[in-house]
Amino acid sequence: MSSTPDPALLAAHDLALAALHEITPAATVGPAAGYTVEADGVVSLRFETTLPGYPGWFWTVSVARVDDEEPTVLEAELLPGDEALLAPEWVPWAVRLADYQAAQAALAAETASGDEDHDSDEVDQGEDADDEDDDLDDVDDLDADDFDEDGSRLLHSGDVDGVDIDELDDDSNDDLDSDLDDDADDDLDSGDEDLDNADLDNGDED
Fold it and tell me: Contact at 8 Å (CB) between 55 and 84?
C-alpha cells in the first residue's frame, strides 16, 4: 500500500459526489470527512451522512486511475466509522436456540430448588404450629382453681414435676388400711384358737 496518495485522486471530490448523488439524495450527503489510502493506490474519499439513525457512518467513494488516465469511481457506499452504532454480530439460529434452551433449563432447575426450600420451610412452620397448639391445649385443660390470685399455678403440698403426691398418699393409706385389716383378722383367728385350747384343757380336768 502506497503511503503517498495520488493528488489527482484526492482532488476527485466532484467525481465522488456525482457518484453518491446517483444512489442517495444530495441532502443526505454532508461535507468531506477525510480519506483512506487503500491497496494498489486506491483512495477512499469520505463524506459525512445526514441520514437519521446512522451516527458515526460515512459515505465512502473509492477512486483510482491507471497511469495518466482520469480518475474513475470503483465503488460508492455507506460504511461505519470507528464510533459507529452497529447491530450485534449475527448469531446462527441453531446457536441462539441452544442458548435459549440452556437458559430455560437453568431457570427450571432454580425454580424447582426454590420450591423445595419453600416446602421445607412450610413443614418446619407446621411442626412449630402443632407444638404451640399442644401447649395451648394444655393451658385450656387447666381450671381457674389451679392458679393463685397472681396467676401462678397452684401446686399441692408435695407436688413434684406434675405428679400429684396426694394421689400417692391415698394409695399408701389404702395399703395401710388393708394391712391393718389383715392384722386384725389374724388377731381374731389367734384369739379363737386360744379359746378352743382352753375349752379342751377344762374338759380334760373334768
Answer: yes
